[in-house]
Amino acid sequence: MSEGDPVPSERDLALRFEVARETVRQALRELLVEGRIRRQGRGTVVSRPKMVQPLSLRSYTEGAISHGRVPGRLVVNWEDVPADADVADALGLTLGAAVMHLERVLLADGERIGLESTFLPLARFRDLYDTYDPTTSLYAAVRAAGVEMGKATERIETVLASPREAALLECTTALPLLLLHRRSVDGKGEPIERVRSLYRGDRIAFEAQLSR
Q1: Hey, what CATH class is 10-46 in?
Q2: Residue ranges of the domains in the chain?
Q3: How far apart are CA 162 and CA 169, in angstroms?
Q4: pTM for the full model?
Q5: pLDDT in tens, 95-144
Q6: Alpha-helix residue ranges (DSSP H) falling in 18-84
Q7: Contacts of 78 (CB under 8 A, 6+ apart)
Q8: Does the N-terminal or the C-terminal CB of the chain have fewer CB atoms within 10 Å?
Q9: Cα Dmax for the chain
């Protein structure tokens, strides 16, 4: 079957393969979680392959374009907030110091695949409010401001979405999500960002190149 083809009904599949309806239902649930099929209206269709992103300092925009996908972003929040203990520690700030918080839904060909929450030191990046379009690549704007990414530490976990996150990602709270925490610094070791990203496990995967 090709991308976009309708998936036969549970009844038809059960008759075709001579198995119980519950067996078919479980198989379809597994295919849904794997991203092989997706809901569309009242039916189910074959999904396109997952977008595979490298674990690197390359931006989301660059990764999406390299896979022939059209990147996009929907801005949820862009405001100054006081740094909590985790953000303050990551950015080398005092507790409660003002930081820039940018929260966006990440799109690929118009589909919602991720929810990204980025914290930046306000004193260092205040000018972004005047120069940056938050629907475009943040890393490109940071480079344009004369700041180059040096290295980053990233941790990956699996979680379930909260009701708010599920609504923003247009999924159910039962869908497994990939949670990424990233802390990036420049070449001198000065903190640039603290990022919390949620990705739909049925639409994206990550890979890393390893060597001895």
Answers
A1: mainly alpha
A2: 10-46, 51-207
A3: 10
A4: 0.78
A5: 999 999 999 999 988 889 999 999 999 999 999 999 999 999 999 999 99
A6: 21-34, 60-66
A7: 100, 101, 102, 103, 134
A8: C
A9: 66
